[in-house]
């Protein structure tokens, strides 16, 4: 059990670093392009929002893949796609139970679920902050246009 905790917490730490890196990239991208949000084109706003969302989703998918690699290295799955599927089910906290790990490593499933809840929550918070800023900028731009 102690070894599983060490493996799980180490994997969570790497995932946190990865999430932080991609969150920083997403925030910097938005910061560099947010002036376009208050412009007349709704398409530019949608494009910016979709790019931010894609960066965040790629971060979560990369974490799913990292956990799948850990499961493969531990010998839990022979087929990588099965490891990725099982990892995604854990990360998203779906808990289907159609594929289970051995008793030796099953503690890693709940640890990945905890990781997933936290990281998906961070992604959601970042996306929501982006949307809120976009709405605020759009409202201010329209109010300024009305006063002209």
Number of helices: 4
Parts with pLDDT < 50 across at least 5 consecutive residues = none
Strand content: under 5%
Number of strands: 0
Distance between the termini: 67 Å
Explain the layout of strands and helices.
Elements: H1 2-33, H2 42-73, H3 80-91, H4 108-146
Walk me through this protein's architecture.
This protein is mainly α and 148 residues long. The chain has one domain. Helix content is 78%, strand content 0%. It is built from four helices and no strands. It has helices spanning 2-33, 42-73, 80-91, 108-146. Helix 1 runs parallel beside helix 4 and helix 2 packs across helix 3. The protein is elongated and about 70 Å long.
Question: Notable features of this structure?
Answer:
single chain; 148 residues; mainly alpha; 78% helix; elongated; transmembrane; K_chnl_dom
Brief write-up:
Keywords: Ion channel, Ion transport, Membrane, Transmembrane, Transmembrane helix, Transport. The protein has 148 residues and is an all-alpha fold. The chain contains 4 helices and no strands.
């Amino acid at each position: 059990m102690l070894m599983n905790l060490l493996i799980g917490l180490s994997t969570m730490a790497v995932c946190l670093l990865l999430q932080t890196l991609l969150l920083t990239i997403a925030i910097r991208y938005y910061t560099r392009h947010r002036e376009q949000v208050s412009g007349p084109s709704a398409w530019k706003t949608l494009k910016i929002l979709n790019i931010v969302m894609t960066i965040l989703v790629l971060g979560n998918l990369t974490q799913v893949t990292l956990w799948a690699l850990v499961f493969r290295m531990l010998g839990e799955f022979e087929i990588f796609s099965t490891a990725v599927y099982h990892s995604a089910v854990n990360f998203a906290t779906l808990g289907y139970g159609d594929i289970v790990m051995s008793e030796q490593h099953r503690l890693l499933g709940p640890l990945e679920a905890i990781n997933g809840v936290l990281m998906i929550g961070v992604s959601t918070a970042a996306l929501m902050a982006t949307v809120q800023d976009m709405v605020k900028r759009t409202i201010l731009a329209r109010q300024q246009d009305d006063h002209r």
